[in-house]
């Protein structure tokens, strides 16, 4: 007996039992009687057992045939359900997608995009993970996440879809003497206490490089990847911070003022990354297509 069971032959056998004979089974299966008879005989040979006791009057199950019939009905039902499950996944009627987001700079931009995706695919379970940039990259590598929002330049190990090309603005208390201008230069911030985002943000490194190029030693008082904390620190009048312009526009608080930065542009480029060469699920591929349409930039992914 072979180790592989032919489901087509099993289906023919079960139909013979249900219909009470080969002729009726052939009609139900839109086949010929000889084809059905041959399939059942091949199944018997495959299993090494006689399944049907044939006579000119009726066809009865043997003891082995009864076991095969009872188990076979369940097996075919499971196979049919498997096909249904796969079809539903392909049709995005069900599934799960684990997405990672950094703590700063994503909620304002992506909340509507997430909501629209959920409305379009209501049976896709979205699992959101909020973590640091380094943690998100590790979770991608270890397959804990399928896709994560990451900053450009993305690691070489990731394929990348850019969704936002923004730049940093200077955030000052509304009461600060520098807040009345139209813009502000880095030299004017010399000696001002600064609250910066964490060092794993590419924009943080670009900002420090700009200070160094200008020959200025920034007075960094605190770091955080929590936007709310940065705003509260600035509101308190204790110092200044830097935020991307789309977040500054979204907050628009009277207690703080966001001014364009004169001189070098400090980019804040955000997108979605996934491990190079790793096959995306149907839900993840739909997310990539959805993001490309519904966020501020529409670009083809950068495939490594």
Average of the residue pLDDT scores: 84
Q: What is the level 1 CATH name of the largest domain?
A: Alpha Beta
Structural domains: how many: 2
> How far apart lie the N and C ends?
48 Å
Indicate the radius of gyration in whole angstroms. Answer: 32 Å
Query: Helicity, in percent?
Result: 40-55%
What amount of the residues lies in strands?
Answer: 15-25%
Poorly predicted residue ranges: none
Number of strands: 11
Within the CATH hierarchy, at the fold level, what is the topology of the largest domain? Answer: D-Maltodextrin-Binding Protein, domain 2
CATH architecture identity of the largest domain: 3-Layer(aba) Sandwich
Biggest sheet architecture? 9 strands, mixed
SS-derived structural category: alpha/beta
CA-based shape? rod-shaped
Count of alpha/pi helices: 10
Order of helices and strands: HHHEEHEHEHEEEHEHEHEEH
Notable characteristics:
single chain; 304 residues; alpha/beta; Arc Repressor Mutant, subunit A; 2 domains; 9-stranded mixed sheet; two-stranded antiparallel sheet; 11 strands
Description:
By secondary structure, this protein is an alpha/beta fold. The chain has two domains: 7-85, Winged helix-like DNA-binding domain superfamily/Winged helix DNA-binding domain (Arc Repressor Mutant, subunit A), CATH 1.10.10; 91-304, 3-Layer(aba) Sandwich (D-Maltodextrin-Binding Protein, domain 2), CATH 3.40.190. Helix content is 42%, strand content 23%. The chain has ten helices and eleven strands. It has helices at 7-19, 22-28, 33-47, 63-90, 107-120, 133-141, 202-213, 227-235, 245-251, 282-294, and strands at 52-54, 59-61, 95-102, 124-131, 147-151, 158-173, 193-196, 219-223, 240-244, 256-260, 267-275. Strands 3, 4, 5, 6, 7, 8, 9, 10 and 11 form a nine-stranded mixed β-sheet that branches. The protein has a two-stranded antiparallel ribbon with strand order 1-2. Strand 3 (95-102), helix 5 and strand 4 form a beta-alpha-beta unit. Helix 1 packs across helix 2 and helix 1 (7-19) crosses helix 3. The longest helix has 28 residues, at 63-90. The two termini are 48 Å apart. The model has no long low-confidence stretch (mean pLDDT 84).
């Amino acid at each position: 007996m072979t180790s592989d069971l032919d489901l087509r032959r099993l289906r023919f056998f079960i139909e013979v039992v249900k219909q009470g004979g080969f002729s009726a089974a052939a009609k139900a299966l839109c086949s010929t009687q000889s084809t059905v008879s041959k399939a059942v005989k091949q199944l018997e040979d495959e299993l090494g057992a006689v399944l049907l006791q044939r006579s000119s009057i009726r066809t009865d199950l043997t003891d082995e045939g009864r076991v095969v019939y009872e188990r076979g009905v369940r097996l075919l039902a499971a196979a049919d359900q498997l096909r249904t499950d796969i079809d539903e996944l392909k049709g995005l009627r069900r599934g799960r997608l684990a997405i990672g987001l950094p703590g700063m700079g994503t909620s304002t931009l992506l909340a509507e995009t997430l909501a629209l995706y959920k409305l379009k695919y209501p049976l896709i379970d979205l699992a959101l993970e909020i973590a640091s940039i380094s943690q998100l990259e590790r979770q991608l590598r270890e397959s804990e996440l399928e896709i994560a929002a990451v900053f450009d330049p993305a690691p070489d190990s990731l394929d990348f879809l850019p969704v936002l090309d923004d730049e940093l603005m200077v955030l000052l208390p509304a009461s600060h003497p520098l807040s009345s201008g139209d813009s502000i230069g880095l030299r004017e911030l010399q000696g001002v206490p600064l609250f910066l985002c964490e060092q794993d943000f590419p924009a943080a490194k670009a900002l420090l490089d700009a200070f160094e190029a200008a020959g200025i030693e920034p007075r960094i008082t605190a770091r955080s990847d929590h936007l709310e904390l940065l705003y509260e620190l600035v509101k308190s009048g204790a110092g200044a911070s830097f935020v991307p312009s789309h977040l500054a526009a979204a907050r628009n608080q009277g207690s703080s003022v966001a001014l364009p930065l004169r001189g070098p542009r400090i980019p804040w480029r955000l997108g979605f990354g996934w491990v190079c060469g790793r096959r995306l699920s149907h839900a993840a591929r739909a997310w990539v297509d959805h993001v490309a349409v519904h966020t501020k930039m529409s670009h083809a992914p950068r495939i490594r």
